[in-house]
Design goal:
This protein has helices spanning 17-26, 61-73, 85-89, 107-112, 120-131, and strands spanning 11-16, 34-37, 39-41, 47-50, 79-82, 96-100, 115-117. The longest helix is centred in the middle third of the chain and has 13 residues, at 61-73. The strands form three sheets. A three-stranded parallel beta sheet has the order 5-6-7. Strands 1-2 form a two-stranded parallel sheet. Helices cover 35% and strands 22% of the residues. The protein folds into two domains: 1-56, no CATH class; 59-131, HAD superfamily/HAD-like (Rossmann fold, 3-Layer(aba) Sandwich). It is an alpha/beta fold. A hairpin with a 5-residue loop joins strand 3 and strand 4 (47-50). Keywords: Amino-acid biosynthesis, Hydrolase, Magnesium, Metal-binding, Serine biosynthesis. Pathway: Amino-acid biosynthesis; L-serine biosynthesis; L-serine from 3-phospho-D-glycerate: step 3/3. It holds the Pfam family Hydrolase. Its cofactor is Mg(2+). It comes from Pararge aegeria (speckled wood butterfly).
């Protein structure tokens, strides 16, 4: 629905890129719009850690990504949707934060949200009304 409206969508996660990119593909979000941590492995296949150069690998990283996106693309309104404290921390620089409690309700996230939903369909329905 956001794509139909011409809204550019990003996935910004403290999770691992190898798990998030398949989801992004299903959502038609290009890999260049995914900001997440990269796992590193030695040549023999053993785990070697994660890429500390990814902004999402450290505290405040999501806010840093948001700030960079706004500077790079000149976005006037950037809305963050998330379910965790690090998502809420990214507002500001995000202009608004929508909290999601569909998996687990976190009171701190709820308190810091401009709008808090516990059902994904509520968010979709509201977006659908806005497009008509």
């Amino acid at each position: 629905m956001l794509h139909e409206r011409g809204v550019i969508v990003y996935l910004v996660s403290g999770g691992f890129r190898s798990l998030i990119e398949p989801v992004a593909e299903k959502l038609h979000i290009p890999p260049s719009n995914v900001y997440a941590n990269r796992l590193k492995f030695y040549f023999n296949g053993e785990y070697a850690g994660f890429d500390e150069n990814e902004p999402t690998s450290r505290s405040g990283g999501k806010g840093l990504v948001i700030r960079r996106l706004k500077e790079l693309h000149g976005y006037q309104r950037l809305v963050m949707i998330g379910d965790g404290a690090t998502d809420a921390e990214a507002c500001p620089p995000a202009d608004a934060f929508i909290g999601f409690g569909g998996n687990v309700v976190r009171e701190e996230v709820k308190k810091r949200s401009a709008w808090y939903v516990t059902d994904f369909q509520e968010l979709v329905s509201h977006l659908n009304v806005q497009t008509k």
